[in-house]
């Protein structure tokens, strides 16, 4: 299939074709004695993911584990659909996200407030998963991949309070979710992902440092794909966070509303991203969908208002 790519080490990247785009959200299948899917993509992507797994020889009875780095709908929106299709799969998530997979009503209501009518097109509906099938991880945990291979979970909030990074004991691959930002392979751009309500700068920087301390051989971004230059990429992740926060802090200190703050951040950061100066409008549109300035700035402002609520009149 043209949306499945072998990455070595029995790892396969699956383009979930989110909202009809290529290169938006990746799921990853780790094949072996106990096949494991990392990230489901959206609910509307579930048929695409099921077809991809079937093309790799993984049928409904074969999948052992479905694990998500966090419960945002572009990463976990397909959990309920895939849990139904793969009845033997254990569903693994951080403990702060587990109840939302069992009862997604609050999560979906919150997403509806943010996305409005776009919700159905972009994400679809997260359906409930039987709580008995969900394993909730603490700050660390381990997933058995079979043959002595395991996926070790490391709590990495900052982007979201229910976020984990996942390190493959055999390959050294680190599944970074959104904690290291959003990567665009065509241009090499890296942009932060700082949506409300959980973003916290120091927590996010600590998570990036933790990723470096784990000594991974490769970073596997959910948005999007594998990156071999681990140290430089994580340094860039931290730098991008600081740049966006510094500009947003200035807008906050000047008492600017969200729209004006977004305009200011876009103006100050535009030259950092080749995707925004490309002649291909779809690349720029995809980058904005992946890591939209309004969402990022809103998350930073939410954090700033918690730590420094007073702004000049």
From TrEMBL:
- Residues forming the Metallo-beta-lactamase domain are 24-223
The cross-references to InterPro entries, in alphabetical order and at most eight, read: Metallo-B-lactamas (IPR001279), NDM-1-like (IPR050855), RibonucZ/Hydroxyglut_hydro (IPR036866), ST1585_MBL-fold (IPR037482)
Question: Pfam families under this entry?
Answer: Lactamase_B
Keywords assigned by UniProt, alphabetized = Hydrolase
Q: Name the domain of life.
A: Bacteria
Q: Which GO terms describe its molecular function?
A: hydrolase activity
Record's SMART domains?
Lactamase_B
**PANTHER family in UniProt:** METALLO BETA-LACTAMASE SUPERFAMILY LIPOPROTEIN (PTHR42951:SF22), METALLO-BETA-LACTAMASE DOMAIN-CONTAINING (PTHR42951)
The name of this protein is: Glyoxylase-like metal-dependent hydrolase (Beta-lactamase superfamily II)
Q: Which organism is it from?
A: Thermopolyspora flexuosa
User: According to the entry, what is the taxonomic lineage of the organism?
Assistant: Bacteria, Bacillati, Actinomycetota, Actinomycetes, Streptosporangiales
